[in-house]
Write a structure and sequence with these properties.
single chain; 487 residues; alpha+beta; Purple Acid Phosphatase, chain A, domain 2; seven-stranded mixed beta sheet; 25% helix; binds fe (ii) ion; PhoD_2-like; PhoD-like phosphatase; PhoD-like_sf; Metallo-depent_PP-like
Length: 487
Amino acid sequence: MKPATAPSPPLSAHLKKPLGPILMLDDIREGQMHLAALFIAPNGQEMPPIELDGISISAENIATYQHVTIWRCRFSRPATDPSHYRWNGNRFDLAGCPEGAMQIAYVSCNGEEHGDLTRDGDERNAMWRQLAETHDQTPLSLLLHGGDQVYADEVTLGHPLSHDWPDRLPRDPSRGDLVDLRDHLRERFLDRYIAVYDTAEHAHLAARVPSLMQWDDHDICDGWGSLRRSRTYSPVGQMLFDCAREAALLFQHGCVDGDLPARFADPTGLHLGWSITAPGLRLLAPDLRSERSRREVMGTSGWRMMEGAGHTPAPGRTFVMSSVPVLGPRLSVLEWVMMAIPSMQKYEDDLRDQWQSRAHRDSWQHLLEILQRIASLDGQDVTVLSGEIHLAARGEMALGTGKVMHQLVASGISHRAPPKAWARFLDMLARFGDSPLPGHPIQMRPIPGQSHRYVAERNYLLLRKSEGNWQAQWALEDSGPSAWMPL
Ligand SMILES: [Fe+2]
């Protein structure tokens, strides 16, 4: 039984001073990092400008809520050299993205489905604190967020149209009631973002390390895109998506419709896939949610971006962000078992979210062929970064050219791990292996220092380039940092 009222307090009403700066990397072009600094400020407060070498750049108002205004300031800093900016009397240092030596962090699953707003902050943000300390020792160039930046599942509570989402929905809500629902959802999405951004641990990093984000289902609602059409395409479902998307554009990308940064492949934002190219490095992030249905992972426009990336030269390393893992155990067996047992069918939606679902086998092969094509050129390598499963793991696929494609899974930064028994079960399932591309078997392997393939601890990932070579390290909450693994 769902609670009768929304559990979240109106955090926006209690904000006393601006939240921010929260830095986003808009793009890298012509030797410059193009940045957006985002602020969430109480209505009516003056917003100090960003200061660069004696030049003041004013912030612009890009959205208004009941109690707060969203401000954004766009500015540029050198792409490959350290630099800094100032705001409100404080200096913030930036590492830049030097080609020879840089460190990037990857995080995912920043929250939990139920009661995330009332968790103890020390417990919830323990891994964020560790990451902030890591940055103070070895500055991070970029912070990649691989999905579930917020867990918005509870935003639907407390409004008569959406309180029983997705189980029971009004068939024909009036336009007036839908406008009321929009106001309800907008304010509650805002609160979710304030809750994660208004913590000392996150704020320290967000002001000093440009973020790049890719959403997953919980940024919208659990299972978005894998739910039945009667839910997704209902008036309430579409309003939920529109409000989630507006919030993601604002708080994950620092923009609104009509002014998407140049890294996005589709300026209209039908899908939110993007790519960033720096010397020796490409970051490629398809949008696996905007165009998703129970039959398709991406639409024509999303696939066009990926095919284009497969044919565009990208010397060095391409890190592909796929919110759900591309390499994993043979889940189609599990899916078949769940379909056969009526009480398990609700979990089928979760499996539909995976590349390994029987419904997406063609899409999975298509993606793997694109990734294989990228790595088929001399001087080009590809590595996949994913989250979603609340476990740490890694996989490999031999590409047939003497190269190996690594799949690195890091999840979650604040979502607690599932029972160890689930990790052992996946470990057992992974022994079966899978070969979606004939002759290229997928193998899940233990993270360095671990005896099992799936680690049930909170975690994040560090990617380090030194002397031209990339390495990965998992920061595991109980086991500590893994050994650096060459990629
Ligand atoms: Fe998650």
